[in-house]
Every structure is written in structure tokens, then in C-alpha cells.
Amino acid sequence: MGRDTVQAHLAALDLVYTGVIEDVRKGIDETEELDRVTQDILIDQAAELEKFQWFVRAHLENAGGKLAHEGSATERDAASTARRKSPKSA
Predict the structure, then answer these.
(1) Domain 6-85, CATH number (from 3.40.190.10, 1.10.540.10, 2.30.38.10, 1.20.1260.10)
(2) What is the pTM of this model?
(3) In the chain, at which end, N or C, are there fewer CB atoms within 10 A of the end residue's CB?
């Protein structure tokens, strides 16, 4: 992305977190019968990832709880949408 606003980078990062969390959740499902120890590790990892995503989203939500980049499909699109919606600095 290069140099951009904090909001733009956070919006892109949020989509990355979503993708990683989805992959970890698939791993949780796949290891349910195969290896409970691995599944437990993945559950702990998912919890940490979701916590950090929550921290990121706290900076992207408006007062109504809507994300600045809601509906964006790619990181660049999320960054662009968040940049347009973020307050302009002087």
C-alpha cells in the first residue's frame, strides 16, 4: 500500500485478519476428530486473533457500529473506502 492514512492501513489489516481467522477456523473444524491437542492450540490462536481484530475494528467503527470499510472485498478497496470516510487532518 505504501504511505497512507492510519485508517486506510487499519481497514486493510482488518480484511487480512478476517482471512487468517477464517483459515484458522477451518483448521479447528478439520482437527476436531484428528487431533484434539492441535485443535485446542488453534482455538487459543483464534481467540487471540479475534481479540486483536477487535482492537483494530474499534478504530474503524462509527458511533452506530458500522465499519468504515464495510462491504470492501480487497485490502486496497478497504483502504480506499476508509480513507474517503476518515476525518481530514489540517
Answers:
(1) 1.20.1260.10
(2) 0.87
(3) C
